[in-house]
Amino acid sequence: MYLQTDYFQIANRLRTEKVYLQENKMKQENLDEAKKELQNEMESDRNFSLKFHEFLKSYQSKKDDKILEEYHNIEKVGFSRFLYEFSINRNIKSDLDSRKKIIEILVGGIFNGSNIDNLAKAIQKKELTVKRKSGNHDLPISLTSKVFFLYRPDNFVPYDSYVIKALKSEGYKVDKSYESYFSAFESFKNHNQVELKKQIKTLKLSNEYLTELKKIGINNFNWEKFVELRFTDKLLWAMGKELIDQKKKTNKNQK
């Protein structure tokens, strides 16, 4: 009997050959957009990640409610700002108590080795996300994946609606789980590995991120893997954005 992971891997291997390579060349506009986004956000990613690790160290040594509140409220790189910058603040409750409970669940999950999907379900079960007209609370996969991205950006990528749009347009199967999302993401990355590596070689990135992480004790950070994941993420985001912009333009012209 196949595990769920095996099912998604097989499904993606057997998908229709709708790859993004057109005559062995990706769309240059999307590649350029991906490079620009990656370089523009590198410093912000680093700062949010470093502050999160500083918070984890403090909270692990002393589980104090005051530490939670301080981390939430830090200007520019605190949890509240992170929610805004990563476009997830609208999906969770805005009161401080709810936010602190969310941080507690996420941190507990990281320390206990929980996965992204299970933590999203735990937050939903506690009714800490917004309630929709259907009566259901949001399943915050985007939130949990982006916190895990802060924790280990060389192992995780943000769950994003634009990326889902791009993956589906390429024939990949993605359901409402991080497991299927990352399986499709990895399949796309592996299928286009030659071109992706070629493009990554043209990037001019400072490895200050790596240096700063080592300073706070993270010595096993895989810089090359991080860049490969983040560049693929930004490329798929650019592809998805193009598809959505085209649809908006078509709808506008039809009115």
Secondary structure topology:
Layout: H1 4-13, H2 28-61, H3 65-73, H4 79-85, H5 96-112, H6 116-125, H7 141-151, H8 161-169, H9 178-191, H10 193-200, H11 208-215, H12 223-254
Helix pairs in contact: 1-9, 2-12, 3-5, 6-7, 8-12
Q: Could you describe the 3D structure shown?
A:
With 255 residues, the chain is mainly α. 66% of the residues lie in helices and 0% in strands. It has 12 helices and no strands. Helix 1 (4-13) packs parallel to helix 9, helix 6 packs across helix 7 (141-151) and helix 8 crosses helix 12 (223-254). The longest helix is centred in the first third of the chain and has 34 residues, at 28-61. The termini are far apart.
The strand count comes to 0
Fraction of residues in β-strands: under 5%
* Quaternary structure classification: single chain
Order of helices and strands: HHHHHHHHHHHH
Q: Tell me the major beta sheet.
A: none
Q: What gyration radius follows from the Cα positions, in whole Å?
A: 19 Å
Helical region count? 12
Shape: globular
How far apart are the first and last residues' alpha carbons, in Å? Answer: 51 Å
Stretches with pLDDT under 50, minimum 5 residues: 16-25
Overall structural class, as computed from helix and strand content, comes to mainly alpha
- Binned, the helix content reads 55-70%
Mean pLDDT: 89
Quick structural summary:
The protein has 255 residues and is mostly helical. It is built from twelve helices and no strands.
Q: What are its keywords?
A:
mainly alpha; 12 helices; 66% helix; 0% strand
